[in-house]
Amino acid sequence: MENGHKTGNGVAAPACEVAKVPEEEIAAICARYGCDKHRMLDILREVQDRYRCIAPSTMDRIAAGTGLTRIEVEGVASFYSFLSLVPKGRVTIRLCDDIVDRYSGLDAVTAVFEEVLGIRTGETSADGAFSLETTPCIGMCDQAPAAMVNDVVLTRLTPETARSAAEALKAGQSPEQLVSERFASLTPHERALHMVGNNIRHAGEVLLGPVPEDAGLSNAVSMTPAQIITTVEESGLRGCGGAGYTTGRKWRFAASERAEKHFVICNADEGEPGTFKDRVLLTERPHLLVEGMTIAARAVGAREGILYLRGEYVYLRELLEQVLEERRRRGLLGEAILGVKGFDFDIRLQLGAGAYICGEEGALISSCEGLPGEPKTRPPFPVNRGYLGYPTVVNNVETFCHAARILDRGAKWFHAMGTEGSHGTKLFSICGDCLNPGIYELPYGHTVRELLEMVGAEDAAAVQVGGPSGTMIARDSFHRKLTFDDLATGGAIIVFNGARNILEIVEYYMSFFVHESCGYCTPCRVGNVFLQKAISKFRKGLANPEDIDYLKELSGTIIETSRCGLGMTSPNPILSTLKNFPLVYSAVSKPSKDGIRDTFDIQSAIDGARKIAKRRSYIFDKDFTQ
């Protein structure tokens, strides 16, 4: 996460200090969230939005208002990339730096913004009007290049549209006016559609076809919690985020825990580069999502729920808040839902602040608790002790939507679709080198080749299945099936043609994992830096055959010793390409002249890793104290 700041002339600016902000204003912000330390992320986001930074004196006031220490507040403020301890511009432009955006013309778009605004990427103008930054994937890979301008999203940028936008902003137009001159009169749903197209290419039978209103919830209120769970189990529904854990079993474990409270959390933090399916469901099926969460709440006995929305999807916040309020008015949220005494459940929206790691359920729960988004040690698992120590069900958007449809149409209906072990339909996010990027809802079991034919990518040379943490396959594997037992994926399918450099893609993905590591454990934090440096050697033609063994050995160590799923999957871009594209590596490696391999000093490596990832190692840094 970057908190660096330069003025337009490249001179370092002083640390953020807003001493003139009246103490009562900070106190009022804290009071708006009940002075609850668990709402720290909400408090800091509001301060950031209002004052453009989190100043030292402000952190002191927030600490006093929430009963925390200054260092605890600063730990949260310094963790998330959308929060800053130094001043940001009144308009902050974040250009998506995903590999798909790069291949779609990002460099030319960036050059135009730099020219018109008179600043370089990573700088803020001397008058404090603009900041220009890059950020990892913002969920718009089907319409790249894309950017966030404050809370507004711009897609399909070209040098011409970038120039028009930059000049309009410099002339005093608001980011909202870039979307529509009548932005204020549009409904939240219309605003979302004006910014981002859904690109639904194939609507399937379950989620994107006709969906009756709250039919699943109506059935659920006449069933016992045990009957609801049994129905979900018999349907064969598995988690749609990638791990594929049986949904009904997860609900049963949570329901069986005797506790004062239970919670239901929706993980809408789809940060995996190339994934944008949940974005479409949040836009087109928000009621179905909330219906699914409400059904889960009845099944496990939860009275409170949290919808965790990734910070990059802030443009959908108003729409989702409107949906929640509408459902409260209609008796579909709150007390005595659908008139059933004792069926009480409500949901609050929790907005993230730019941290890929929060897609991991333990880190997501930490974030909801007002902490840095660091994964939790397992066991215990969230279904046993999750949010605030209570049993918690965490599922993603697609899973909850499927659950609502299953309660409507029945377990047999859903189970009959797909293949053995992979039942129902799946939303695939297709992007990259294809004619028709977008969303395809298909039953499990299609081959990669069949999918490529649908999207117009017959010239594909490589396909990244499941995003960077998944598997990259070559043409000789296009016969494989998209199922949990063959090629499992949370939904991301990224297509690359023969003109793309495999090692360039791998190096980008490793840089992504280096940047997004939470920094807690050294295997992930430092090991990924070593892997990135090693790939750089291959790209420069400086590697030798022994370096291939080094890549495999180090990858295995990172996978075996990392604390959470990020480290356990981050070497996958290397391991899958070593397996499926071996000639790429052998072609650029050559024996060393003296046969001597480089050695390294751990402290020097950690220092380099700290500078690259802009975080410290909690375990091996000599100067780190908690």
Automatic annotation (TrEMBL):
Mind telling me which SUPFAM superfamilies this protein's record contains? Answer: Nqo1 FMN-binding domain-like, Nqo1 middle domain-like, Nqo1C-terminal domain-like, Thioredoxin-like
Q: What is this protein called?
A: NAD(P)H-dependent oxidoreductase subunit E
Q: Which family does it belong to?
A: Belongs to the complex I 51 kDa subunit family.
Q: Which residues cross the membrane?
A: none
Against InterPro entries, the record matches this protein to:
NADH-UbQ_OxRdtase_51kDa_CS, Nuo51_FMN-bd, Nuo51_FMN-bd_sf, NuoE_dom, NuoE_N, Nuop51_4Fe4S-bd, Nuop51_4Fe4S-bd_sf, Thioredoxin-like_sf
What is one Pfam family matched by this protein? Answer: Complex1_51K
Q: Which UniProt keywords apply?
A: 4Fe-4S, Iron, Iron-sulfur, Metal-binding
Cofactor dependence: FMN
Occurrences of domain NADH-ubiquinone oxidoreductase 51kDa subunit iron-sulphur binding (ranges):
503-548
- Domain of life from the UniProt record: Bacteria
Organism (species): Roseibium sediminicola
